[in-house]
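Bit of a strange request maybe. I'm writing a small parser for structure token strings and I need a real example to test against, not something I typed by hand. Could someone generate the tokens for this chain?
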Amino acid sequence: MIKACVIGWPITHSRSPVIHGFWLKHYGIDGSYGRVPVRPDDLPQFIAGLTANSYAGCNVTIPHKEQVFAMVEPGNDLTRRLGVVNTVYRRDGRLMGISTDGEGFIANLRASLPQLLLKGGRAVMLGAGGAAMAIAGALIAEGIIELVVANRSSERTENLHRKFGPVIAPARWEDRSSVLEGASLLVNTTSLGMTGQPALDISLDRLPVQAVVTDIVYAPLRTALLEDAAKRGHPVVEGLGMLLHQAVPGFELWFGKRPVVTRELYDLVVADIEAAK
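Reply from user aminoacidic:
Good idea to test on real output. This should exercise your parser:
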């Protein structure tokens, strides 16, 4: 049996076992995927023991993504540049790590809006954490010529600017509404608007009506930001698809089969989210 898992602290909120469990059953693979709570102090020991404990690898969630990066070999240049890892796998006796958040974000946009053209556009991103870093890298790779980043901490915004150069345009958090003018894409990567979190306070008045609005929050499935954007006539992309698509590369690396994100899987995860309310 091939064994993988997701680690974090806490970890009970993770929907990854639902996703990978569905694919294991769907493709008839003899494997397992579970949640493992790992305290920050226990992280080095857990990662070092992956092979001895017969894990093919693991997903990594809050708060371990940056720490795990220092414990594995980057699996590609983008991951090396980002400095964060959300997927660990074994190859030729080595522990490798990649970040799939950016790939999942772009795949979700493409699945929702196949005709979307990112190249040459101007995007605004709210937040500058680990997921934001991966999304920034993916948007720049797609040809975005300016990415305005508004974050509550200027230190994190400046870190993005150092990593990616002049394509990143740091903005003050209090200017988040005024910088929307001329943007073709608005992305919320903060937890604001998530169930149990404060609301995201932003005015969309200056955002061109053809601009796409997306949120990586998936509980609720449609955040207040997306509701407001839809009422104004913007194309909107929900965050759950990113969660599903970012899981694809890890499953392939561990279990040897590239899975497909289907409506059946989407509905299954939605039901799991609704049951947890």
